[in-house]
Amino acid sequence: MKPQILVSAVTAGSGKTLFTMGLLRALKNRGMKVQPYKCGADFIDSSYLSIAADKESVNLDAWMSSPTHTQHIYNRYGEQADACITEGTAALFDGYRRMQGSSAEIANILNLPVILLVNARMAGYSVAPLLYGYKHFYSGVHIAGVIFNQVSSPAHYAHLREACSDTGLDCLGYLPVMEEVKLFPKHNAISLANRRIIDEQANIVASQIEKSIDISRMLNRCNRNFPCQYTLPYYSDTEDDMQPYLWRAMERLVGIYKLFGSVVLTMNVNKEQLLERAC
User: Fold this and answer.
1) According to the 3-state scheme, what is the secondary structure of 83-104?
2) pLDDT tens for residues 16-57?
3) Which of 10, 13, 200, 268 has the highest local Cβ count within 10 Å?
């Protein structure tokens, strides 16, 4: 048994990366060995998580990998950790085709409880029906708690906490507006100077998390058996079994090649079909 958390949000841009960085740093400061993960192929956010945890972050991509392979990667890298913290991609149910490839799919594959982050800058009691919908939309995902971000005052938080309670979800705390903490634009390189700034930001958010979020209750609510169970039937790495996932990987590679310029495909495949599938 160990704490295992997937941090997601009701909308993209809600502050998942900053919160996850702060949580990783707070747990590290408590003497815990933490293993960070990132849903999808995002290597920028992964780099931020690696800095915050002082441990290389691992990507979990349900679009390119089979469920069994995703479970194998998760179990392999989390074996020696005291806690496994995964940052989701976009909003909880956003995938390339409905929920396929989404954070919700990763949570279901790995049996991870979800901590749902809500950007409350312009929100009040109306978050109640929103949270109720997230709670009941898909039974394959368990929302273990809610954290509100961009909270303006204690009175504001009291309204939000009441809304959360009325939906039957556990409110674990909040983060106030922190104008001094902002991530670099994603096109900026992570230079040595920027790494120092990111490290300082992780400390600032970690300090605030210790003040306004019940970390111990969060960890207790997200305690799960480790390693996660493998999906059966087990898929081998033979060509026939892996064909759907190889096609997905090929589609993504072709998309990347098209994005960065001319492509020379030397593999013995139908080029027109690949380009058509990548569009």
Assistant:
1) EEEEECCCCCCCCCECCECCHH
2) 999 999 999 999 999 999 999 999 988 899 999 999 999 999
3) 10
pLDDT tens digits, residue range 110-154?
999 999 999 999 999 999 999 999 999 999 999 999 999 999 999
CA distances to 104, 117, 144, 167 from 113, in Å: 10, 13, 6, 17
Can you tell me whether residue 150 is helix, strand or coil? Answer: strand
Counting every residue, how long is the chain?
279
DSSP 8-state symbol, 122: T
Strand partners, 244: none
Tokens 């998309």, residue? 255
DSSP letter string, 172-185:
EEEEE--TT--PPP
pLDDT value for 141: 97
The answer to whether 222 touches 6, Cβ cutoff 8 Å, is no
For residues 37 and 5, what is the distance between their CA atoms, to the nearest angstrom?
10
Closest residue by Cα to residue 120 from 88, 87, 92, 153: 153
**Would you call 235 helix, strand, or coil by DSSP?**
coil
- Nearest-angstrom CA–CA distance, 26 and 53: 9
